[in-house]
Amino acid sequence: MTTTVPKLVTELELPYLDTIGLERHDAVEAIREARSRHWLARTDLGFIVTRLQDVTAILRDQRFHSALSVIEGAPELEGFADREGRSESILTMEGAPHARLRRLVAPAFTPASANRLRPTMRRVVGELVDDVVSAGECELVADVCEPYPIPIICELLGAPPEDWKLFSSWATDIFRIFNNNLAEDLPLITRAGEELTRYVSDMIAERRADPRDDLLSDLIAIEQEGDRLSTDEMAMLAEAVLMAGTDTTRNQLACSVALFSEHPDQWALLAEQPELAPRAVEESMRYLGAVRGTARFASEDIVYRDVLFPQGTLVATSLAGANRDPEAFDDPDVFDITRERATAQMTFGAGIHFCMGAALARAELQEALPLLARRMPDLSQAGEIEWKPSNFGIWGPALLPIRFTPPEPA
Ligand code: HEM
Question: Quick one: 7-403 is in which CATH superfamily?
Answer without folding.
Answer: Cytochrome P450 (1.10.630.10)
